[in-house]
Write a structure and sequence with these properties.
This is Large ribosomal subunit protein uL22. The chain is of the alpha+beta class. It has helices at 26-36, 41-49, 56-73, and strands at 14-22, 81-99, 105-121.
């Protein structure tokens, strides 16, 4: 009984992790995501560790989760992993209002984002 198993969306040598509802604008998060795209996992973790951006801690956690998924769920070698994709999606925007002069109102937008990190195992070049 039960429902049938879903087809795997990624290739056999890929694993991913997704963080939803991160409290930062997609534009700012994409700056940090672009910093790690295409790099080896060890270099990407080092870059995030020493980055001065506030959101780099959350991106590092998501990358570590993708690495753990690759190692534990798909039996991949951690030393051969590369950040294949790191893309950012737009989530909801909270709207707040602040009183301004002469009875007017100022709109304050508080955006949220989604982050998806895909790691891929590559063969070592001899």
């Amino acid at each position: 009984m039960g429902k049938p198993k879903r087809e795997r969306v990624l290739k056999e040598n890929e694993a991913r992790a997704v963080s939803h509802m991160i409290r930062i604008s997609p534009q700012k998060l994409n700056l940090v995501a672009a910093m790690i795209r295409g790099k080896k996992v060890s270099a990407a973790l080092a870059d995030l560790e020493f980055s001065r951006k506030r959101i780099s801690e959350t991106v590092r956690k998501t990358l570590e989760s993708a690495i753990a998924n690759a190692e534990n769920n798909h039996e991949m070698d951690v030393d051969n992993l590369v950040v294949a994709e790191a893309h950012v999606g737009k989530a909801l925007v909270m709207k707040r209002f602040s009183p301004r002069a002469r009875g007017r109102v100022g709109k304050i937008l508080k955006p949220f984002s989604h982050l998806t990190v895909v790691v891929r195992e590559v063969e070592e070049s001899a």
